[in-house]
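Q: I'm writing up a methods section and want to include an example of the input and output format. Could you take the sequence below and give the corresponding predicted structure tokens, formatted cleanly so I can copy it straight into the document?
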Amino acid sequence: MSDLITLVIGTLALRPYVFVFFAVYAAAAARDLGLRRALAFTGWAWAVAFLAEFSSTRTGIPFGLYHYTLATRGQELFLANVPLMDSLSFTFLAYAAFCVARLGLGRSGGAPVVLLSGVLMMLLDVVIDPLAVRGDRWFLGQIFHYPGGGVYFGVPLSNFVGWAVVGWVIVGGWLGLSSLVGAVGEPTQMPIPGAALYYGVLAFNLAVTWWIGEPLLLAAGLALHAATLLMLVLLRRARAVALVASCTRSDMAASSGDGVPLRVS
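A: Here is the clean output for your methods example:
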């Protein structure tokens, strides 16, 4: 038991930023989804992420083949060969992407939300993973590597495909499975705190990218996410215009029959 406590303390000490993000996620998800649905999301997302990482470090599916160095084994919690903090990170990254997708599309579920959530989670990783492979230059440390390297700042493109797939499985699976048991309904709050978490994670990673002196990686991340944000704003505006037009047509239909105003006698 004392060894477990030591590992828990070590995990928190080594990765405090991960657990700050996780705490923000827990508070936002509990308020947004309700405590039961938030717990279900956490368990499902973590299980999917752990299985994906466990598989990728052995078979290369779905992220491409990579290996954890195990340099911090004995200092932080591991499950098999996967650091706990790594698979745990997927819970708040998937939720944050889900919130941004809901805000952008103006709806709480459905295939478009699932598809956009996976893409948005992958776009976060376009910034996160190239920074992580340079972990020896900041406080993450060199915790993993791709044996064959990769074309995008040392990361293989298969990794980004894998992140999109995992995002789709997490969000789509959670929506589908939990709706069957009545655990999902309309969110109780707007997903603004979760969307703020998304951009908080992005800002943190971009700041570290600047700090370690990677201007090309920083410029690529800024350009990509600026374009994505513009697309989301346009989607939101188009959705609002469509709703106004729909309400206007409904009001006109309700106030007149064949073009003749209704009279109440």
